[in-house]
Amino acid sequence: MSILGTRVLRTEDPKFLTTGGVYTEDVADDRLEGACHVFFVRSPLAHARISSIDVSAARQAPGVIGVYTGADLADLAPIPPSAAGLINTEMQQRLLAVDKARFVGEAVAAVVTEHPYQGEDATELVTVDYDPLPAVLGFDPADDSLLFEAAGTNVAGYWGDPSKLDAQLFDGCEVVVKQTIVNQRVAPAPMETRAAAAVWGDDGRLTTWIPNQGAQGTKADMAKLLGIDESLVRVITPDVGGAFGAKFGADPEHAVVAWIARRLGRPARWTETRYENLIAMTHGRAQQHTVTIGGSRDGNVQAYRLEIVQDAGAYPKIGAVLPMLTILMTSGPYDIPKAEAVAKVVVTNTTPIGAYRGAGRPEATAALERAIDLFAAEIGADPADVRRKNLLAPFTEPHRTAFGALYDSGDYVAALDKALTTAGYADLRSQQAQRRASGDVRQLGIGVASYVEITGMGDGEGTPPEENATVEVHPDGTATILTGTSPHGQGHATAWAMIASEELGIPVEKFTLKWGDTDLIPEGGGTGGSRSLQQGGAAVQQAARELLDVARLRAAAELEANAADLVFDKGRSAFNVAGDPDASVPLTQLAENERLLIRTVFSQPGATFPFGTHVAVVEVDTETGKTTLLRVITVDDAGTVLNPLLAEGQRHGGIGQGAAQAFLEEVVYDDAGNPLTASLADYPFVSATEVPSFELASMATPTSYNPLGAKGIGEAGSIGSTPAVQNAVVDAVAHLGVRHIDLPVTSRRVWQALQAVQPGSEQ
Amino acid sequence: MIPAQFDYVAAESASHALGLLAEHGDEAKLLAGGHSLLPMMKLRLAQPKVLIDIGGLAELAGISVDGDDLVVGATTRHADLAASDLVRHEVPLLAHAASQVGDPQIRHRGTIGGSLSHADPAADLPMALVALGGSVELQGPDGSRSIGADDFFTGFFETAMRPDELLTAVRVPRQPGVPWGYQKFVRRANDWAIVGVAAVDGRIALANMGPTPLRATAAEKALAGGASPAQAAQHAADGTSPGEDIHADREYRRHLAKVLTRRALEHQAG
């Protein structure tokens, strides 16, 4: 029986559940002996001119080895914005702020001490003379206070041309609905905060341990930030305690730690505090959408427009690029005859925006799924029916959208119907009708969201997405896999071993997976964008098959037989002559005289497009506005499933995170740009008590783009659940006249929406 | 997230702790469960020079009956309070309130004396003490004294306790079988109350509706005058001026106080 498709328990878990992982802060490497500790002085003001920094008192504090400011780092070039062709190139960031601080939490100076405890004490002695400037906030910042004077504007750039929007787009539509929607700023809040350890060797090379999502990308970023050749950088990835998109590449702090290690000629370490993590690690989302949707009274959607404003935060990083992905997925799973989208990117005095689970695609789905519900409400139709009517018909040959996305395969109506059936949709609607009729204080809401998303994209420049893998069989019966992906919770060690085991007949527990050391694995795309299994896993399969090709030739020589006459017996992990099981040689023996290993690169024709439908059922207390999430039912079709246990884990995490965005989480700033959610007491990341057990229905439409038939599953949960829960909450109070409530649909927002339609109707 | 430097002394007895308090004055803080104090120290909002640990003092722990009162030692953990059959029988509201504090880890560390001295207006036990009409016993250099709940909480995170005093015990009237209600409105189960209401025996206490836990006196009066729970609850927010934060503005808090008071008076514990 094939091991593929079975619920193999995670081989990683015994370690994590007993002795625990070895995270960057835990790394006890001889090279880090005697490391100094870095602590950052961070701006307490959102927007201020820095007139002077006095570090003399801090230099005298116990244990202080050095204190550095932006002036000391003058040899390091500023960081240009992402998508420099489209984004204003004046919007550059210094590794430590020089002249100006642009968000609360921006690093202004670095204090280096013998002991980590001394750093926080000494940091308090650094005196920075700030000259406060008006904070620039919101989706429509005026230009009377500029983050970057040289830019002359707070608009960083555009995706698409707003002046070319089609004035006739909605001509002929019987119904047109328009709504401005906020897709709020959220914090990745991984369990493990950011960290680094750095040491320079006598050969002038940097070795740095950084929690990341792809050591090779982090290496490239570090080389760029430090202005050195990539060959001089070795990045090692210890265990990583969650990333959610925010640990791609390298941040200014990582480079400053390496710079300090070089300057002092001794290893340096840094681990940020939870407070720093919530204000200085990139945030996610932060888009405003103005959706306009038009169609016929009988439910055909004929035109859709999405106007995006992306708040990129203080510096245009990945956040400035997210609208490209949002635009790409504008029309989602629907067949909309006319659709268009544009985006404006603005800078504000807030934490920069980066990738966050789904990164641009959840935003597209949230906007569209809200628009579909608004349209359905306007014409008085069931939102599920409107979806069914407008979803693309099933297709097996790739389908090109108006926005250039090439959907590989899909059956969106089947996913919708399966989700509705599993939920017992008709019954739910009748329960809802009963509660509405009886005027129950606790009203039932049912939310539906259909989605298609893009996973495993290439570099966006025409190169097909690819990943490498190396498989080696050792004489002692063990085997090693090297991968260019970078697991941080997903279970690659289990999954990659399953794939190779299936080919080589070596038990899963005999495999060791290695990743995240750029000297060992110089190339790789890391883990993000739900790419790993479809490309990294497929590469492992390809490597194992190619290894068998090599082994077959060696076996033929060993057995003095024709290679073509040999068969591979998986049960014994050995080749034997067809019809003569005794004339056999195991792989282990073939590895004895010469290493038996293969490195290969798997290349995929393009990105894949998983799809599905989420149904959320909520109870809304109409007196208090409080939402209780009763059920979440999902169909997430990510192609062939390798290990249902791992796939369900990805779905659970994603659904929980997406639901949290719907009704709990939001990064909040006050009018002066002070973060009000800078601790986990204030930032309400979701816990087990706020979500029900999820009901996961199975559906698997294989992709032809890789032999595993696999699409990505890492982000789907967060893409479907946010609009499903939001739609459910609005649905619960729709009969009272509420049409829309912004994210997150907190108790207060629900109550305010109810007050607006029934003023003074409390109790 | 690293506290400023401090010294640590494990008190050997209550009188030893009092002696240390007298010696160090304002620079000292008592440490019991540490679940309010230590986070404040890590954020450097509190920077005591000396921590006097009373968490291990057996003489300050324990639950007993004394005449018409239930007496709870100051270092009694929330988890022990919540699980105590005696408390659940004699003062069920108190056991319930203790079961609502934070999460299991917090309840196994945090103490009733610590929670009351910390005097967070959004916390469970201060509100419960006010609803129950209980009192605290304080020991100082000049002997001991008792203060009723209504007089104990004097301001935002402030109490009538003097810096050289030690809260030794909590006293609440026994009321087995008396109906009670407890409403805590939160975002997540382990959060502080956005608004809380505890009601028992004609007394109504509100959490997070002002700088201290408050009595809803107008609602109590209406109730005493024969008003229905719904009618009385309409007065729950009378005279209050709750603060505003990211969770709720003043208007929403006042609204919640009324809804939750009605539910508490209907003996709902949700």
Question: Please, could you describe this protein's structure?
Answer:
The complex is a heterodimer of chains A (763) and B (270). In chain A, 26% of the residues lie in helices and 24% in strands. Chain A is an alpha+beta fold. In chain A, the strands form seven sheets. A seven-stranded mixed β-sheet of chain A has the order 3-5-1-12-9-10-11, with helices on both faces. A five-stranded mixed β-sheet of chain A has the order 7-15-14-13-8. Chain A has a four-stranded mixed β-sheet with strand order 18-26-27-28, with helices on both faces. In chain A, a hairpin with a 2-residue loop joins strand 23 and strand 24. Chain B folds into three domains: 7-53, Uridine Diphospho-n-acetylenolpyruvylglucosamine Reductase, domain 2; 58-173, Uridine Diphospho-n-acetylenolpyruvylglucosamine Reductase, domain 3; 181-265, CO dehydrogenase flavoprotein, C-terminal domain (Enolase-like, domain 1, 2-Layer Sandwich), CATH 3.30.390. Chain B contains twelve helices and 14 strands. Chain B has helices at 14-24, 37-42, 78-83, 85-90, 92-99, 104-109, 112-118, 124-132, 149-152, 217-224, 229-233, 250-265, and strands at residues 7-10, 28-31, 50-53, 63-66, 69-73, 135-140, 143-148, 153-155, 158-159, 166-173, 180-185, 195-200, 203-207, 214-215. The two termini of chain B are 35 Å apart. The chains are: A alpha+beta (763), B alpha+beta (270). The interface between A and B is medium-sized, with 31 and 30 residues.
